[in-house]
Amino acid sequence: MVTVALDGENWMILPTPNPYAALLLEKIMMYLSQARSDGYITPIRPSTIKEFHDEIKEIPTTSWLGSPAKWVSERADVQSRLWSMAQVAIGKWRIYEEVFGEDEELRMSLAMVLDSDYYWAEFVNVNHVGEWAYHVVSRVEDALNSLRMGFGLRDGQMEVIISNNWIKDASLILGVETPETYMEYGIKVQAGSSEYIRINGFNNMVISLLTPKTRYRIRKAIKIVRGAT
Prior knowledge:
- The structure is a single chain.
- By secondary structure, the chain is of the alpha+beta class.
- It is 36% helix and 21% strand.
- The strands form 2 sheets. Strands 4-3-6-7 form a 4-stranded antiparallel beta sheet.
- α4 (76-100) packs antiparallel against α5.
- It is elongated.
- The relative contact order is 0.09.
């Protein structure tokens, strides 16, 4: 058995971008295809192997180097900054998908942030990681800033208007806290529309807009106090 393994995208970009690398890969694939047709080899993929004698129960946290040092600590002063940016981007992405659901474009941007080649000690690229992290964070902030709360009175009741000016539907929780109680209202606001919620009373309340699972506060809580008349 012979294993042919390509190290990620390195065949394309290292040591320097070289168009002949793609030609070489094409020639290799053509050779293997012809060898298969001639009956010399039988290429297989792991998915074609149906019988497994051992069950994988745990994948250890390590790398083919036996240590994450190349990506984490050999240039810790720079690499720690990159991982901090990545952590912020991941946190923002989680909030976005909690509210708006899966977003392929945002996931691809996050994949660019987490491309491990740019954390490798000899190839650290602050600009690449920083620009893609900024793109992820900016998109999430734009989406969250498109969610607005408005207030009004109707038939003696407080009316809260939740508007969604983003391109995707939003799943939200409206939290209403009074000195006596705390209540939550689940809301689904379609893209480009608004939802209206009536609340009994309109004095001494704290109203929050939250994500539906982790209850992350999307907006600063608004306190409503009616002055004495």
